[in-house]
Structures are given as C-alpha cells and as structure tokens.
Amino acid sequence: MAIPVGGGPLVGRDAELSILGAMVTAVSTGRGGTAWIEGEPGIGKSALLHQMLAQAQTTGCRVLQAVGDELDQRLPLRALVDALGTEADAEVGSLLRSGGAGGPTGSGDPVPAAVERLLTLIDGYCAQTPLVLAFDDLQWADEASLLIWQRLGRAVDQIPLLLISAYRPVPASPTILRLRQTAEKRGATVVSLGPLEAAAVTGLVTRLAGAEPGPGLRRIAQQAGGNPLYARELVDTLVREHRITVGAGIAEIVDDDRAPVSLAGAIADRLHFLSPETNDALRMAALLGADFSVLDLATVTDTPATRLLPVLDEAIAAGVLAEEGNRLRFRHGLIRQALHDATPASTRAAMHRQAARALAEAGVPVDRIAAHLLVTPEALDGWVLDWLAEHASDLAYRAPEVAADLLRAGADRTSGDSRQAAILRGLSTALFLLSRLDEAEQTIRRSLARARGGPLIADLAWDLSQVLTQGSRHAEALAVLDETLSRTDLPTLRQVRLRARRSRVLTDLGRYDEGEREARAALGEGERLDDRVAVGHALHTLYLLADYEPGLELIERGLAVIGDDPELFDTRLALLVNRCVSLDALGRTEAAMASLHEALRLAERFGTRRLTNLYIFAASSQLDHGAWDEAYAGFTSLSGPIREDRMLQVTGGLAIIAAHRDDRAATAEHLRAGAQLGRHTGHLATTASYLNMARAIDAEQRGRPDEAAVVLAHTVDEERAREFYDRYVWLAELVRLALAADDLELARAAVAAAEADAAQEPLPLRVLTARRARATLDGDAAALLAIATDYRARGMPLELGQCTEEAAVLLARSGDVPAARAALTDAVRAYVDLGAAWDIRRADTRLRPYGVRRGPRSIRRRPSTGWDALTPTEERVARMVAQSRSNPDIAAELFLSRRTVQTHVSNILAKLGVASRIEIARMVVDRSVAQPDGARPDDRAASRP
C-alpha cells in the first residue's frame, strides 16, 4: 500500500475523513459500499485515500490499491493486476501475456477471460476477509478495468467490499461520468474536495515552516488558492531558498517580492535543485509511467542499477520520488508532468523509441513496448515495423485498442512490403475482438487484394467468412468461400478446411442437403489428412443436421478429435453446448447441466467471444426448465455487445417471462425491441421462438386467440420443420389456441406436426407433446392428467399447469365440478411457483362460467418480503452464503454463472431487508434453530390436497 509522502496528519479534511471512516468501519463488519473522491490535481485526493487505506488496515481489512497512469490507460487491466499482486499476476498476467492463435478465428480472447478471473479472485478475497479496493487516478483507467469497476459496484451491497475511486472530474470522460452516475443511483458516497479553508492552509503552512506564519507568509500562502499541493510546493521552495525566518514563534518570509506565483514554477524550482544526472534519469523515468522499477529504469537508460542508486536516493530526498514496495513512484503526477513537459517533443519521441527497443530486448510484455510506440507513431521505422510484424497477433489479443491504432499505422508504412500481411492480419484480429466488424471486414479485404499465394488467401477467406457470419451475412460469406474454392492454387488441406466451413454456412442458410454433403466430404478428406480443424468443423455441422441420439455420437467424436487444441477452442465450446442440448432432449438432465457447466468454466477461464452467448444459452435452458427467476437474472446480468440473433433470443426470453407474469408494459417494451431486430431463417430461425411465443400470449391477452394462433401457425409446415426443431415447446398450446379460434384445421395440423416429430425421433418431450396435443384435440381430460404427472416428474411446472388447466376445463364441461376444482388448484399451484399471473387469471376466467372457483385458502402465494419470499434457488444460495461460500463457489455448485448468483444474493438481501452477507448468515442460523427440519411453511401447505 502506498504511504503518503510528507507524513503528518491530513489537514482540513475532518468531515471527509469522518464520512469515509464510517464506510471503512461498515465494511469491516461486513457491509460494503462505494465512495468516489473527486477534485482538481493537488487538492488532496491521494492523501485522503492513503489515510483511509491506513485506517482500513488497522481494522483487519485486506487493502489493495490500483493507480491509473496516462501512458498505460489503453493497456487492459495492468493497474489492477499490479494492485492485486503476485497471485493476480500468476493467474491473470500470464494469461494476458500468452496472446492468441492468430486471426479472428484464433483461440480465445484473453481480455474478457482476465476480467472474469480478476472478478473471481476479488470475490474469493471478500469471502475470506473484508476488502477495501481503491483506484487512484481512475481517469486513466482502461475500459476493461472500468468494466470490472462497474461490475464490482453492483456487488458491494452483497459482499464485504468497499470500492474507493479517486479521479479528476476535468476533463470529463463520458465513461467515467456514466460510471459515477450509475454508482450514485445505487447509493454511492461522493466526496468532492474543494479548496482548503484559510485556517486549514494556515495549519499546513505552520507544520511545513515549523512555526505559525506571519502576515507576509500568510499572504504568499493565499496564492495557493486552498490547494494543499501548491501550498506545500510554495513553502518548500521558500525553505530551500532560505527565504523563511523563524523568530518569537512566528515564521515570516523575507524578500517576498520574488516569491513564485505558480504551481508549475514551484515544481520547476524543486527540480532545479537536483543534479543534472538525477534530472536526466527522472526524465526517462517519467516516460515509464507513474511508477517504475529500478530494473526498468536501468534497462531503458542502459545504466547499471548500482550507478542509479545515488541518483534515486537524491530524488527521494528531494521529495520527487517515493518508495512503494519494490517500486518507485513520483510523489505527485504534476511533478512527473513537469519533467515530461520539460523534454522537447522530438526528444521525447526518440526517448520513447529507445525505451521500447530496450524493453523489447529485455523481453518485457508486448503491450508495454507498444505503449511507448503508440506515443510516437511517426517513429515507426525499420526496427519497429519488424517488431510489429513479428508480434502483431500477440499484441492484438493482449491490447486490442492499442493494436488497432499501432498496426493500422504500421500497415500504412509497409505498403508492398512482405511484413504487411502479418500486420494486417493482426489488425483484423484486433478489430474483430473490438466488435468493429465493418473495419475488420475492410482490413481483410485489403489483405486479400494484396495477398499472393493460395495458403494465405485461404486463411483470409476463412477469416472473412467468420466476420461476415458474425454479422449475420451468411450469403456473402458463402460467396467468399465459393470464390476462394474456385482457385486452382489452394493446397489440399486449405481446400478441405474451407469446405468444412462452407458446410456450416450452407446449414445456417437452410440449405441442409447441400450442407450435409459438403460436411461429409470434408470429414472424409479431413480424416485422411488427419486434420483436426476440418474434422472438428465438419462433425459440428453434421451434428446440427442429425437427430439427437446419433448427433450425440457425432459430438463425442468431435470432442475426442479436437482435444485441447487451442485453434479449436471455440469449436470445443460449441460442441459442449450442443452436447448439453442433446442430453437434455434425451432426458439426461443432470449430464446435460454438467456439460453446460464445463463449457461455462472453460469460457470464463480461457476467454472467448462466445462467453455472452453461453450466458444466454444457460438462461434459456433455465427458462425452458421453469427456473424463471434464474433465467431472468441471467438475461438481465449480461453486459457487452450482443449479436443481433442472440439479442433476439434475449429479448424474446424477457418478453415471454413478462407476458406470463402479466407485466403488460414490460411485454410491450420487449416486443417493440424485438420488432426492430432482423428476422432469421434457416437454422437460425429458432432464435425467434421465444419472441413468437410472447407475441402469441400478447394477442391472447388482448382477446384475440385467432391472432395468437396465426403467430405460430407457420411452424406446422413440414418443409420448415428443421428450422423449428424445438416446436414441441409450443405445438400443444397451438392446438388450444386454434380450438379457441374455431380453426379446427390448424388444430389438426398442429397435432399432425407433433406426432410426426415424435415418430421421426421419439424423444421424451416430443412424445409428451404429441400425446398432449392429441388429448387436447380429442378433449381427453384423463389423458391430460396422466401427462401432467409426467411433466411433474420432469420438473416442468409451466407444462404441468397448462395440462391440468386444460383438463380442468374439460372436466367442468362434463359437469364434474369437484374434479375440475382439484385440477384447477393443481394448475394454479404450478403457476404460482412461476409467478405466472396471466396464466392464473386465464385459468380462473376459463373455469368461472362453469361455476368452478378455487377456495380462498387453496393456494398460498409467495409473499414479497421475508424468508418465505425466497425462491427455492434463493434459499439454497442463502444457506450457502451462511457457509461463507463465495459467489464463484456457489455458481460452480449450482451450475450458474457468477453474475446470476450475484443477482440472487441481491434479491435475497432485498427480500430479507438486510444489508450484508453476515446478516443473511444470522437469519439462516436463527431459522435452523427455529425449524430444525428446514421445511418452508408454504411447502407444507402446498402438500395438502
């Protein structure tokens, strides 16, 4: 932890110390919080921060501090990794230094992986002891660090974490402003440091001068404008120049007409007293950042460390540098800025280049070298271009923003040069990772226009097809692949890989027969060549075209072939997810969730563009299995850019939950958002399934069952059955809607479609759907009640409710009111567990004309507050919190993402009306004592007939 230079008590900040001190006390007892300290340079932000961190250490909290730096502000996570120390460097730093496999289709993206690992590490720290985490000079933080800060800010209400940010509000960064505004809405404390009052300035000058200031010295001190750094520099300058005398307990200035009148002048005066050797070393040190190691300075100055020690000792004694662990730090950013500005721009450029080359020869990480080169793009000469060509891929993965600017400049300077191909490919990778797809496409096309030789052209065509499909431009991707495959200079291996890629694009376009033929051809050739890439991609395509049982065999083959090959990391994740789909469809739910968890674990650990897609898939799986609270938490905890087709899935998922829960305003909002998204065909048509079901519910809520049926009617077309491979989810309901709309032909078509699907592949849920659709059409209440028993055994509450509701209506029509009431009660009980207010209202409305009403005590609805307000998952999470389990540990055991667990803990705190995990633990203990069996009162009530 940094120690404030100058020592002594902090002057004039008693109110601020009291506010922040209370927050430190609170976090030491388990209650987290967020504080923002803002003010101009030199106003005392760092000094206040340091004093709070020193206090936090005395309370037993773990204390960590990151410091932003202007030179490093585009290097992902460097300040936070440094702050968290050796454990973070071993866990995260090595990942960031590892780079990628090259090209947009390379292995993973280490930056999002590093974000996840740092969050997991911090979560683990908080599970052990309260944590105070500070970020000084936050205005220089990189985007990945700000993302972490944002996500940690959402967690402080549930873990013992105090976040303290110190920053300059001018110039205002839009990202920082949004982050601060969001924090304020969530209850953050904002401490705005203004000028010190006159009495406080007098106290500071008294301490520095050794006696109370006289009138002349007071007048000079007023020039500081209440800025403590300026006041300190003014007095220090006067003391060095022997212009202060002390007599009779009064410190007074002599020759006051020569007093410095600016902060810059005071700092320049401090530096003027240093030896030329020390000034030279400090100017180079200023280029290394706010802090640096002696080894770094020795490397860039080509000076033995032993010769630097006297120079550095002088700088420390003069108050220019301060020791901080095994590193040195400029006592204030303004001192470093003065040294930087005192060096002519042309000289600075040469010094940065000198530093870059020395650090490169010393083998330091590529991002630190690139930071120096980015400062002086005009200095991209032969050595720099050689270095860029060699390290373009690694740089793109480690620091994509820096790489995008630096590699673009490098590409412009290597026109017609053999180095340009490698630089352009690195540039396209960086742009792809930044989701700047249009620029990535332009870069790859630029490379293609200059490329010579089949192998490179094939690789670029692969990259371009990936970029185009990422933007849902599958037809254009196919055209690129076809044009490339028509060349005669492609090596056989590249041909086979491109054919495997082409098979997937054909499948996405709905050209299934062509896709299957291409995939089988690529598979055969790939196996002959023993090429994992072709074989893995071909098997994945064939899985998409196969039934579930044989498809599962294809997935296992693909996973065995791919192994741990980093070039096929994303394909492995896709196969794991699809294995989950197949196992779930085959009724092997536990194994399915294990496969999903393996995919999530790998994605979070190694980084991938698929991570958000995996979160979406996990939330969709929870929605399908009736875990709506978990699904909602998963959908709403997403961050970062989301592909349009996946956004369609997210919007649809939120819409269907809102529709079932009778939240008309939210439903309308999500449906409007969905209408603005593109419509997909072929294999991707299923991404709109949730949205279509929500549209059907919305139409029925408006009293238009005919419109509701029309929304889903096209899915019974057998020619489009492959597009809607999950239509078993809604076909039985479509029968009910069609009958309500007096469309007997559509009802029969829906039954025929369900029965055809079950006959083609008799999966458990397809068979149940076919039976239920037939029973609904035939009006067979007994069959529906039997099917409901199967749904109950499978843990599918929505389908259970729908089945028993339909049975209740049929029983009521037949005059069996007691049986109808019992069925209605079962249906509503299932709907209550889901919070499906619309379904309850619909069921009551349908049964009311027959005189069937539920008894006033037949269903106990979950309250909104208190222990009984918790969902079953929230109750499990609460009990695990009481065991001092961290969010990542809970997520691992419950097969959830850490973000979803975080949402659950927030809900638990709100429902229980408590402010910390410690209070949750107390309630769990108290409840265990009061109810040793752990049963919920409403569980026992629900078990009664």
UniProtKB/TrEMBL annotation:
Q: What is the lineage of its organism?
A: Bacteria, Bacillati, Actinomycetota, Actinomycetes, Micromonosporales
Q: Which UniProt keywords apply?
A: ATP-binding, Nucleotide-binding
What the entry lists under InterPro entries is as follows: AAA_16, P-loop_NTPase, Sig_transdc_resp-reg_C-effctor, TPR-like_helical_dom_sf, Tscrpt_reg_LuxR_C, WH-like_DNA-bd_sf
Q: Sorted alphabetically, which PROSITE patterns does this protein's record hold?
A: HTH_LUXR_2
Q: Where is the HTH luxR-type domain?
A: 863-928
Give the protein name, as stated in the record. Answer: AAA family ATPase
> What's one Pfam family here?
GerE
Q: Which domain of life is it from?
A: Bacteria
